[in-house]
TrEMBL record, chains A, B, C, D:
Pfam families: Aldolase_II. It comes from Dongia rigui. This is L-ribulose-5-phosphate 4-epimerase. Keywords: Metal-binding. Transmembrane segments: none annotated. Residues 7-195 form the Class II aldolase/adducin N-terminal domain. The keyword Metal-binding applies.
Amino acid sequence: MLKALREQVLEANLDLVKGGLVLYTFGNVSGIDRDQGLVAIKPSGVPYDRMKADDIVLTDLDGKKVYGDMRPSSDLATHLLLYKSFSGIGGVVHSHSEYATIWAQAARAIPALGTTHADYFHGPVPVTRVLTDAEIEGDYVLNTGVVIVEAIGDKDPMSMPAALVAGHGPFCWGRDAADAVHNAVVLESVARMAVHTVALRPETRGISQSLLDQHYFRKHGAKATYGQASSDKAL
Amino acid sequence: MLKALREQVLEANLDLVKGGLVLYTFGNVSGIDRDQGLVAIKPSGVPYDRMKADDIVLTDLDGKKVYGDMRPSSDLATHLLLYKSFSGIGGVVHSHSEYATIWAQAARAIPALGTTHADYFHGPVPVTRVLTDAEIEGDYVLNTGVVIVEAIGDKDPMSMPAALVAGHGPFCWGRDAADAVHNAVVLESVARMAVHTVALRPETRGISQSLLDQHYFRKHGAKATYGQASSDKAL
Amino acid sequence: MLKALREQVLEANLDLVKGGLVLYTFGNVSGIDRDQGLVAIKPSGVPYDRMKADDIVLTDLDGKKVYGDMRPSSDLATHLLLYKSFSGIGGVVHSHSEYATIWAQAARAIPALGTTHADYFHGPVPVTRVLTDAEIEGDYVLNTGVVIVEAIGDKDPMSMPAALVAGHGPFCWGRDAADAVHNAVVLESVARMAVHTVALRPETRGISQSLLDQHYFRKHGAKATYGQASSDKAL
Amino acid sequence: MLKALREQVLEANLDLVKGGLVLYTFGNVSGIDRDQGLVAIKPSGVPYDRMKADDIVLTDLDGKKVYGDMRPSSDLATHLLLYKSFSGIGGVVHSHSEYATIWAQAARAIPALGTTHADYFHGPVPVTRVLTDAEIEGDYVLNTGVVIVEAIGDKDPMSMPAALVAGHGPFCWGRDAADAVHNAVVLESVARMAVHTVALRPETRGISQSLLDQHYFRKHGAKATYGQASSDKAL
């Protein structure tokens, strides 16, 4: 049942580890089949080195399990809300990668300080508001998704494929599970550079709108010129 | 004699190295058999790459050696006091892992700045008071244990499985030797993120009590929902 | 066609990865054959682990492709302007290596704070001015070269083989592609040390002119004494 | 000729690389045979991965080459002065390891902020004064040794086996070449922790004299208790 999707999601989870973003079982990746309305997601608390495609759980968009023996990631409800809210995305990643988490813990958006940032994120990477006690004590995992959707607001989720949950860590997304992981890996590098850039120059406001646009649209959209194909980002 | 325990302790010592927490022979792990009242501990100053299960020393809770040819770790007396004071623990780790040591050197508790912290440590990781000259010149290794026990105070050692010895470094513990190492590895990541979070936002007070509780109890205790089993943390 | 050059350029691109300066496909290296006026450069957006010498594109100094099926790096126009402006150089590297990029994002030149710097860069590594909106919206890639050439000014490009593009990242060059990569790797270490040196001692002005000269000329020029040959830097 | 010494020195040079202290050919290790008054030292600018025991150069204490085809390290004169001034040492290391170099570039001694430091260095690791222009333009390499000897002053070089040359980097020494490298590796970790400790707590004065003594003498001297032998540091 959706074997190819489960294999892609397994692969993307392993790429998250290879990208250096994971300690133990922290972090999870999912992917969606939009036609069938089914989400494939990492099982909860299973070590990556023993994970198989058959351990990847399938659920519908209401979180009802339709395949697999394992419990899905405890962050499932956040993933599902992102898929429901952002219709263009095909994969979601949550990690506790250290530098993105540092910005989340500091409850600061990551300003667009350079072209590496601009190549992937069309503006500052937003941080959510702090959840209220009622939201935490209520449907916490769902409410984590609610504040992410709020933080993205009227931005296009495909041109801002990440948000930081205050006091928690980053969620990233993309065209599919692999693309979401790619964005998460770049976010970590961007976050690390931003920590030290701000230390070197606390008053920095970041790059101009024109430089942000120039780099973002060089890699994305109809006029993209980067890579070997003309209409999409790096192959 | 307690071969399985000695093998677990050997394995846990090697995992400490794999976790990147060890330079040369710095650091030591022990485990206890509560029924027999015997502790298995790393020998002093032996390189990890040559260590065998037979080099792991067994002592009773008074530090009398009952198995092995080597001298036990020079930190033995601290380990023993922790086992005597914290009846629920089964393993103890001491390391000089760099970022936990940085907080210890700064004599600052690590505030609970995010959910990674909250998943493992139910509040700020405490730092001991500075030892007096008399305590240092007296039974120094034992007194290191005394100030750790003081720093934990009336906290539950299983929900606060670490303390920083001021000017020295971290001690961690857990259900068994492997769990203690797991906590030490997570502490290092939490400590590293906390150093930079505080730099980015010096006035931060950390996450709310409700978020701390939400994450801690998601992984620990009767209502835990993380992982594949229902009553304990990540398998 | 210029197979040896294409192989050197491939090798230099792979060395950039080995040096830890590259995430995904970020970064590109080129080399020039001065006699034929042809430049060999990495193709755009091709993963390093699949790149072959045949994927390396050859263009003339006006950017007209004379060999290869792939699109050249999207930074080609910057490379070409550097070759035309700095007649002594034989290789060019652009990367987003993190610490050099941090200085670029902070729009600060890297001061000469120690002898590691002085061994390679005969003075502060300059940072360009910020590009105007007109320059960004015009021939952006070419204009990136223009501000680099401006930043080097009347310095000898062989004794200052790097510049930081404000808000972007480093460009480095050298006798050939391999030498340019060597300089880029050293720049990254120098930049990392400089970030923390400035944190430890914000008022530092760096080393004296005499120490800068002593180290620079120990490795470069007719009186060089480093290495096994007498007239050039480390073999 | 002194084959065992040359092999030890080769091994120690390779250990410097394994310890992560070396970029390209930066850094050099030597060892001495006190009976014959001969020093074995790394050749200048030779890549580590091709270095053989036969490339290790032997010189007398005046720097006259007595064995080998290669030029000795360009830092030879510094090494020789240290051997002549510190009669108890058997090995010398110079590196540009990043964090020790950061303190050297900041021209600050590394304060004794914790027991990791105290286990190896019996007090703050001193930094030299800045060399005068005359000293730099004169016999620079020798004068580098002169200011190190000045910085050690009346301290015992065996209990303070390192000094930072202002604006340059660390020199370390020990009983033999391997021990000198061991000290250099520990110094780098100590220096890295000190950078961040000072950031977290700028006003820190470091550990007490009694804690410094307790740890230092636990590993060194007649009353040492660390390791498996009673009279020396970690085996």
